[in-house]
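Dear Dr. V.,

Thank you for agreeing to look over these. As mentioned in my earlier message, I'm a first-year student in the group and I'm still getting used to reading structure tokens, so any feedback on how I've presented them would be very welcome. I ran two proteins. I've put each sequence directly above its structure. The first is here:
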Amino acid sequence: MKLWVLLPLLGSLLLADYSAKIFPIDSGIKKRMIRGGSYRPGCPVPLRDLNYLRMTYRGFDGKDHTGEMIVHKDVAEEVTRIFGELYRAKYPIRRMRLVSDYGGSDWRSIEADNTTAFNCRKATGSGRWSKHSFGKAIDINPIENPYIRPNGHISHKASYPFKIRKHRKNNSPADRAMIIPGDKAQKIFSKYGWRWGAYFREAKDLQHFYHP
């Protein structure tokens, strides 16, 4: 049974045990974003163009949890559907918190293996705004899906076991969180037109899915 109710600035998706709700950025979330360093004057997208999501995800402990994420309002409904399909596919997620809880630090969020989206920052190794600054990119299970530099270097030591990705070694949650070309998670994002950083020409950003 599927129920989709879309109200002005507020939506919700209920599907089996999965649920998702879409909210505007209220004063409380705004305060968290500014205090947490993920939003500041000069960011390329205004807060009115962002939405706050609360979504069910299947944790590494096999239990259901409620995560939170901020994305651009143009992709908010789509993101809830993507994560609904990931949930039904039993794809595990370590945690899903706002990057503001990590002081806006991409490094600290990755070290916590945090799945997140909006963060007003420049792209890694570039002076350009990241897709995350527009709320149109998601980093998912970043320890199991690391950023690998052209020389093969990985900055986060916990990601070393996940550098070789031709096949899965076991059925542990961390192993199932590792995204391999052609698997269910990659196909779900691709179904909605999202592109994968694994196909970047130089560095391979395996955690990174983005809306073109």
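The second protein is here, in the same arrangement:
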Amino acid sequence: MEGALLGLFMVSACVFAALLEHPGSAAHAALPDAFVRRVLMGLAMGTTAVAIIYSPWGKRSGAHINPATTLTFLRLGRVEAADAAFYVVAQFAGALAGCLVAGVALAGPVRHPAVQFAVTEPGARGLATAFAAEAVIAFLLMSVVLTVSNDPRTNRFTGLAAGACVALFIAFEAPISGMSMNPARTFGSAAAAMRWEHLWIYFVAPPLGMLAAAEARLRFSGARFVLCAKLHHENDHRCIFRCGYHDGACEPVPAAAARGGA
């Protein structure tokens, strides 16, 4: 499910990138302002993220669709190590599969130099700035997720909060780093487009940013305030994680166990 969900995310990214950035697209011709196109791309991908998180599969898998997210919840003691390993493998495979499917379905448009499978690349400000920007937006996203998802009063809004972050970051941050926050997402595009330059930025910065958010959460709130690895917990799907919610479907993890797992 994790692989398929990230694959669908990549198909959506490729479709909307081709629609908005291919020079032969009617939408591109009608929207000459790059910022307006980024706003629309942000809305499209933010909506895609929201749909994935609230989908039946997203409710079951937790809708991480990002190795950095999975590793963060591993650090927080809410995911078993073996589960995290399989999640990461599935996410990388799903991202690549989604790009390859888009390549078959869209052929020329998605391979055009202006689209290139929605590849993420550093902007004109340089590699160091792109690295820092990726770390910052990853920190912000995970901070929002941990704040919203671990409060029973607000958990059901996690998908909306995450989608809003994606939309805003694409609109305003994308010119700096390409706006990835996701090693698997960047790998899928890079492998399909055969563009391997600066891949290390997207493999290192997003996990660092999200793990920093986890450390901040542990320092200021403690492990007992990280309740679950699901982004959307208020649903009727079985929870497969080390869950701290008292919802009748999951047994709470003792604080000592959570600290040990962290």
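From my reading of the second output: The chain has one domain: 2-261. Residues 169 and 237 are 30 Å apart (CA to CA). Does that match how you would interpret it?

Kind regards,
E.
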